[in-house]
Structures are given as structure tokens and as C-alpha cells.
Design brief:
Layout: H1 2-6, E1 8-11, E2 14-17, H2 18-32, H3 36-44, H4 48-57, E3 66-70, H5 76-85, E4 90-95, H6 98-110, E5 117-121, E6 134-140, H7 149-159, E7 160-171, H8 177-199, H9 202-214, H10 218-227, E8 231-238, E9 243-249
Parallel strand pairs: 3-4, 3-6, 4-5, 6-7
Antiparallel strand pairs: 1-2, 7-9, 8-9
Length: about 250
């Protein structure tokens, strides 16, 4: 019985075989890729732009550095970091989902971002990069969809240079009780309706709401990062804890 539980994992509020989750998550993002940016604006009322700006300011990225935008989707962070690292730097936009990666590549190239950006389809649990390679790794609204989060954090630690930092921007646990109740009502009743109206897919957005609730809270994720080897791990709550930015260093 215990052996069976080790082979199971959450997919939203459902329990599925670990071997199935990656494909199920892939189907969600194949479905939403084309209107992903529009839905981000609608779902967050545009506030996601403030969360991302705060994260960029916390990155410490400088000219000539290497940055990994992991689970980078349509490339919002890649666009910013491409300008920050300049011609002598490199940004890798990595995503496990080829639909998302194609949308990111198309959007960035249409905006004239070409020279210092590479695109890699990669699983966060087994990153195909050398040890001690990146100055900064960011994973934004992606960690909660990873099957083995501990393995992914260890993989990120391996490819990060000594002195480098990991930034995890993710939905988290609201710290204000009235806000938590409003957030639940919005997530489970309104969000799927928006998904149905805009993407013709309520189920994918129901999963996304459920996956947020199943994701480790702020303190738990801090401990997971420390267990993976990161030091000076801290987090900052934003919008009352609806979102948190975790930061950790490799020394």
C-alpha cells in the first residue's frame, strides 16, 4: 500500500499515477497556449505585471550573465532579461511544453528579440545543462506543475553557478483570512467561466485553480529549497500572499 502511494501524485484535487501527470499537464498547456497572455491579464486584472516587475528587480542580473527562464512559457521574463544581459550575455527560454515554447519564440522574434536568446524544450527535473552554468534561474508560475518538485529544485541547484540565485515566483497561500475566502470563490467559480468564455476550456482552468491549492505553502517551499542546497532562502508575499517570491542562493 505504501509502495502504491509513492507512485501516486496530485493532479489538482485528483490523485493520478506519477507517470501520467506530465502528459496531463502538457494537455492543459497545449489547450491554453494560444491565449495564455490574454488569460494572464484577465485572471490577475493585470496585477501579474507588477509581480513580474518586482521579481526582475530582485534578480540582480547584469550584463554578460547567463539566465535560465525555466517553464518560461511565452517569454515575458526572457524579453526583459535579454535586454539586461546584452550582447555578451545569454538567456535560455526553457519549457517542457512545445506549444508554449513555440508561442514564446514567435512572440519574442516578432518583437525583434533574436541574438542572445536560445530555446530549449526541457524537463525541470532533468535540466540538460552543464553544472555551474547560470548566474540566475527563474521559474515563474511553473513549479506547481512539476511532478517531482524536490528533484527539480536539486536540478536547478546543480546548473546554478556558485554565487547565483534562484527565484521562484508562484501562487501561494493568502495570509489574510477574508482575502482567502474571496480568492477561493473567484478561483473555483469565476475563473473556470472565464476559461470557458475565452479559451472554450473550463476544465484546464479548474485544474490550474486546484493546482494552486495543492502547491506547498510559503514555509514549506522555503524548507524544500533549503533541502535542495540553497542558502539564505527568503520569501516575499505579494497581494496578501496570493503570490510569493522565494529567493535562494548557491554558495
Amino acid at each position: 500500500m505504501e509502495e502504491q502511494s509513492r507512485d501516486k501524485i496530485d493532479f489538482g484535487f485528483r490523485t493520478v499515477n506519477k507517470s501520467e501527470k506530465e502528459g496531463m499537464v502538457a494537455n492543459v498547456f497545449h489547450s491554453v497556449a494560444a491565449k495564455y497572455d490574454l488569460m494572464n491579464d484577465l485572471m490577475s486584472f493585470g496585477i501579474h505585471r507588477i509581480w513580474k516587475r518586482f521579481t526582475i528587480d530582485a534578480s540582480g542580473v547584469r550584463r554578460g550573465q547567463r539566465v535560465l527562464d525555466l517553464a518560461g512559457g511565452t517569454g515575458d521574463f526572457t524579453a526583459k532579461f535579454s535586454r539586461m544581459v546584452g550582447e555578451t550575455g545569454q538567456v535560455v527560454l526553457a519549457d517542457i511544453n512545445d506549444s508554449m515554447l513555440k508561442m514564446g519564440r514567435e512572440k519574442l522574434r516578432n518583437n525583434g528579440i533574436i541574438g542572445n536568446v536560445n530555446y530549449v524544450q526541457a524537463n525541470a527535473e532533468e535540466l540538460p545543462f552543464p553544472d555551474d552554468y547560470f548566474n540566475c534561474i527563474i521559474i515563474s508560475f511553473g513549479l506547481r506543475n512539476v511532478t517531482d518538485k524536490d528533484k527539480a529544485l536539486r536540478s536547478m541547484f546543480r546548473v546554478l553557478k556558485p554565487g547565483g540565485r534562484l527565484l521562484v515566483l508562484e501562487f501561494s497561500k493568502p495570509v489574510i483570512e477574508p482575502l482567502s475566502k474571496v480568492y477561493d470563490a473567484y478561483s473555483f467559480h469565476i475563473l473556470p467561466r472565464i476559461g470557458q468564455a475565452v479559451v472554450n476550456d473550463a476544465e484546464s482552468y479548474r485544474y490550474l485553480a486546484e493546482s494552486i491549492r495543492m502547491h506547498p505553502d510559503q514555509g514549506t517551499l522555503k524548507g524544500m529549497m533549503e533541502n535542495a542546497g540553497f542558502e539564505q532562502v527568503s520569501y516575499t508575499n505579494m497581494t496578501g500572499g496570493i503570490v510569493a517570491l522565494h529567493k535562494g542562493f548557491k554558495f
